[in-house]
Structures are given as structure tokens and as C-alpha cells.
Amino acid sequence: MTLATFKGGIHPPDKKELAANKSIAAAAAPQRVVIPLSQHIGAPCKPVVTIGQEVKKGEVIGEPGGFVSAPVHSSVSGKVIAMGEFPNAMGKMVTSIVIENDGKEEWVSLKDNPDYIKLSPDELKEKIKAAGIVGMGGAAFPTLVKLSPPKEKPIDTVIINGAECEPYLTADYRLMVEKPREIIEGLKILMKVLGVSKGFVGIENNKPDAVAKMKEAAKNEPNIEVCALEVKYPQGAEKMLIKAMTGREVPPRALPMDVRVVVQNVGTALAVYEAARYGKPLIERIVTVTGEGINNPANLTVKIGTLISDIIEQCGGLKESAGKVVSGGPMMGFAIASLDVPVTKGTSGILVLDKEGIMHAEDFGPCIRCGRCSDVCAMGLMPSMLSILAEKGRYEEAKGYNLFDCFECGSCAFVCPSKRPIVQLVRLAKSQTKP
Amino acid sequence: MADIKKEHELIVSVSPHIKSEETTSLIMWTVNFSLLPALLMGAYFFGPKAILAVALAIISAMLSEYIYQKALNKKITINDGSSFLTGLLLGMNLPASVPFYIPIIGSFVAVIITKQLFGGLGYNVFNPALIGRAFLLISFPKLMTIWTEPTAAFLAFDAKTTATPLGILKEEGLGKLIAVFGDKINLYAELLKGHRAGSIGETSAIALLIGAGFLLYKRYITWHIPLSFLGTAALIAWVFGGKNPETGSMVWFAGDPVIHLISGGMILGAFFMATDYVTCPSIRKGQILFGIGCGFLTMLIRLKGGYPEGVMFAILIMNCFAPLIDRGFQSKVFGAAKPAKEIKK
Description:
- The complex is a heterodimer of chains A (about 425) and B (about 350).
- Chain A is of the alpha/beta class.
- Chain A has 13 helices and 17 strands.
- Chain A has 2 domains: about 280 residues, Rossmann fold (3-Layer(aba) Sandwich), CATH 3.40.50; about 70 residues, no CATH class.
- Chain A has a 6-stranded mixed sheet. A 4-stranded antiparallel sheet of chain A has the order 2-8-7-4, with no helix packed on it.
- In chain A, helix 5 links the parallel strand 10 and strand 11.
- The two termini of chain A are about 40 Å apart.
- Helices cover about 55% and strands about 0% of the residues of chain B.
- Chain B has 16 helices and 4 strands.
- The relative contact order of chain B is 0.11.
- The chains are: A alpha/beta (about 425), B mainly alpha (about 350).
């Protein structure tokens, strides 16, 4: 059987075996958390607590600063001890609230509502909004915005993204194996909110047990289809996933809603379910801690704001050979300069790579025009030309090669035999010119 | 803040953080390796002079690159296998009888003038080895067309000179060529084996195809250029290549495509020279057009031109068009509106 997929793409070694068999475990509660007020794409939150104030677990500490925004909650109970600029995983200084954990795990009052599915779409949306849910695949786009398409753009399909095409990462896989029922419930809520009757779950075929579990969980749902997808990076990119599942192509610079589709990550679906049923805000997430450079790989439920250094310590610390720590996956994640940065809503993994095998930026050669990058580009671009033009400062010309259609998946840089930093050059060009 | 006591210098760089194991030099050395069977056959048929010519070409190619880069204070890249490959291909494109200075001059022209002066690896417009050979052919037309008989006797130092199969075909016709080799089956067999006059590394079609098969299997080359090149050449050879043995006038659909494919530099050119990454288009669809152009021009020269062989000039002419072809065949951006006629369906 040929599996659904898209044109182009690469087959990096998947390395999921490092953490795939580790059941989700709770990370030890940190002594203090550093919660950035900007964890999402869009406007940062405004703080609504003051230094010295006691907060409960799940209490709002930041109110959304605009429509494209999401509230931020305390992930522990305790006392606000500082507020100010702290570095995030991308090395940017962002306003953050530091809370000292009193260890009491005292929740704001949560109420179980087993009849959540009977709530109206607007009531459900209100709950999703209040829970501060954002896309948990990495981009952290506020979920509510995706669920509020303009009237002239009707939606007919919701896709749950279980591709997890990034090598090493297993957080979504563990969720699908351990909480398939909840994910399907989350999907049903999303379908109800958007008023659509067709739901898909797309999973790369290197996770057959996840496919089986999800199929089992959805067996009484005639409107939900669980599909195995070809194992190929970047299968989990929104546009590629939509193409594979529905055959629809999102036009350049357009959004999934332009082809009547909304895509949400499996972690997001779970958060939606927990918000709708219990009113539970997004204060923790599953993080895969993995890589050759960490002593004990794991899949952990981590409180938002926990420092990566705390997590690494719990996982046995870094090995002598460790050379790079990445927030996210190896293809699109960010290498971090300091371990004292917090886990945020979009942190899908903490990946520790060995020193050996890390390419240094100056070690690249000239483009030999072998065409491998064009072969693998899922967007049909010519990355070789983009990199050559950017290298020479000819940014305007790069636009003629569809510079702004690149979503920086890194497939080109992965296959490049000259090891050219194509993504870096593309970002440079993008920053020096306007779309 | 929690403090991590271990001393770890973290490396920070832009994604992706993993890369494939393929490198430019791995590719270059693999291509060199894939030429080994053909080179061995050349050495077997043409003896120590052939080995000497190829060795001189390789050494002077690498030395040229070294001296140029040293003189201009650039990074020395002779280990990447690319100047070795240029020298090897140039050597394999020479007659075994050439005096020692011919490969040296050819490599100099190939590496310094064609490659380095244009900016080095990746920036040259023309295939360096072919420019080297074209320069030699034009500057030393006599020396470059003295073909010795393939003796297969390793120490036969004074082998007789003879004409190449394509030369015989051009001057005296197919009948004569078959007569020289006995019969048609024997002609094919000898051409495949490489037991015929010609450049050192071009004669053994089988040995070349073994190397080419390996490169295709490794996906270092794709079928696009060789297939369109050979297919076009075969078609033209069949349609226009037939001649009335009495009058010498053209007979439609009577040519022998097989002889054209496995003689001259066709196999070496289609699989190893036209596919040079730097000088061919990088978009696969464009490569098909490039291959068709190469096949067409090769046969135009072979059938109508002054030279018996046209592979070299065909590839060089098509090299000029490679950037233009890439531009024209830039693939469709994902999701971009399909051309109007497709929508009508």
C-alpha cells in the first residue's frame, strides 16, 4: 500500500529509539519557575500579579495583550518573587514572572464537567481561550485564533497532526500511545467548535502502535479517520500534512483556512480536552529529553517555566561528549546558549547532541549545483540559488526565487554535500528585505 | 537560578542541527573510483603510455590547483577530489600516444583557466576537462588525432597507428568498418569490450557502464541526462545515419544507432562528463532538455560536421545554456496556481 505523502522531503535517521519506550513521567517539581509572558506568536501578555503576591497553581498571571495572544498561568502554587527580563530559549530577553514554589500544589478550583461535549461552540471557545492554549507542535500559535476563522473562510476539516516528523522527538508518540481517547475527545471538541464533520489524525508510519491505538480509540467515531503517513521529513509541516491527508494545496503565503482546513497538534488536542472538561489551563506539557549527549533520555510532564538545567539534572545530566543543546527537534529547533532558560508552551523537546558531528559554520564549501536541495525542497524552491544570492548580498534577487515561501524546514541544508548553512542564509535574506 | 555545575561549552548555530553524511569530496572520490574499471581497460589495451598520460594529467591538475591556491592565498582544496577528477577525465580523453607535455598543458588549461579563473569549484561555466581537451585538439590537431592500435600487449611500445571506428565510419562508411572488424557481431563485441582505437578511457563501453551503474545506484547521478542524451543520439543516428554505400547519399531510417552509442566518447560523455554537477542544469526537468541538446549536437557534428566525433563540443555548447535552462525550468512553488490548461481538464 502506498501511504499518503507530499513531493520532496528527506529521510534523516530517526533516532526515536532513544526515548520511544520511556513512558511519560512527571518531572520533579522545580523550586522556582520562570514564566515568560510571551510564549506564543503574537502580542505578549500584560502581568496581573505583583511581586510578593501569593498565587495558586493555574492562576492567571498574564492577561492576553491582544487578539493574537493567549493568557499565561502559574504552573505552581507559591509566591511571585521577581518580574523582569529573562532570556528565553531563542536567546531573546522577554518579560517573565518568577514564582517560588511552595510545594503545596494548591490548584485554583477546577470543576469536572463530564458533559463538556454538550457545551455550545462559543462556550467551548471561551474555555480554550481561558486556558491559554497555543499550538504545542513548536510554533505556539494561539489556538483560539485558528478556531476563529473569518466568516468568508468556512472550515470543513480538522486535522490532528501526529506526524512528529522531527527525528529524536517522541512526546507526541507517547501521548498517542498513552492518551489516545483524550486526543480523540479533543478532536471532537475542535470539530464541534468549528462546526465541521470531518476529522483526521495523521501519523507517520514509523509509529505503528500509535496508529493502532488511535484507530482503536476512534473506532466508534464515523467522522474521524486515522491515517498512516509515509515516513518522510517534513511530513508534519502544516502544508505537507494537508496535502497528504486531503490532496489540497495551500497556496503560497496563504493559510490552511484558505483550503478550509485547521490543523492542530496532538498535544494541543489533549490540552483542549482538559480545558473543556476540567477547565484546566495549559501549565504543563510533555517534553522529550533525548539525544546522545544526555544520560537518561525520558518523556516528562514538565511545568511551564521549569528551567532546562533542572530537567537536564533530573535526566542524569549531560555526558562529557555533549556539545549542543537544542530546544525542539534537530531539524527546526533552536540551539540554546544557556541552560538556564525555561520550558515554554512550545517546547516539544530538549535534545542534547554530541560534540562530534556538529558542523561549524565556517566549514562550508561552495555550491556545486548538484541539485539535491531542489529535489528535496517540499515547497518546490531552488535553495541553492537562495543561498548563493544571500551569500552575495543580492537579497532582492532572492525574492525572484520565492524567498518568502521557504518555511525553513532545513531539508536542503541536511542534504547539502557542501554543508552550506542554507537556512541561515535564507533567514539573513529574509531579514534584509521585505516580502 | 538553578546552577548547573558541570562545565559545558554549548555550541550555538542555526538549524538544522543534523546533516547527511554525504560530502562534496566523498562524491568526487566516488566518481573517481567509478572510473577505475574504464581506466584499467584503457591501461590494458594501450599499455604503459596510457598510464603515464593519465598520471601526468592528474598530477599536473592537482599541482595547478595547489600552486594557484597557494599563490592567491586561498584555502588549499586539492584533497576534495575535484582536481583529481578533472585530471583523470582529461587523461582518459587523450590518445595514448600523446607526448608528455600534452596532458600537462591540458590540465593547466582545465584547472587554472577554466575552473580557478572563473572562481573555483562551483563557479566554472564549462566542464574543465573538456575545455582542456578542446584546447589541445585545436592547438595540437595532429598529436591529438594519432590513434594507436589497442594491442593488449602490455609492453608493445611501438604500436601501429590506426583510425578510430568513428573515423572509419565517417571517411569510408559502415561497410568498411564492418569489414575491419570481420562482421557486425564482432564489431559490437569489440566496441563493448573497448578493443578499438580511441581515447584512453573512452573505449570500453562495458567498463564505463559498470561505473555509471554504480553512480546511478548511489544516486550520485540520475538517469535524466544520460538517458535523454543517448536516446536523442540513438534516434538521430537511426533516422539520419543511414547511407547508401554506392552513392553515399542519406537513406532515411537506416542508420545503426548501436555503433554510434558505443563508439567515440558517447558513453563516457553521457554518464561522466555531461552530468558534471557544476556545469549541467540542477533542475531535473531541465536536465532532460540539456541531454537532448547534447545528443542532438553530438549527432549533428558526427553526421554533418568536420570532426568524426562531436561529444566534447556538444557538451561544451550545452554548458553555456545550463544557467538559462535552470532559470526556465524553476519548479512550481508548492500550492501555486496551476497553469490554465491544467485547470480546464
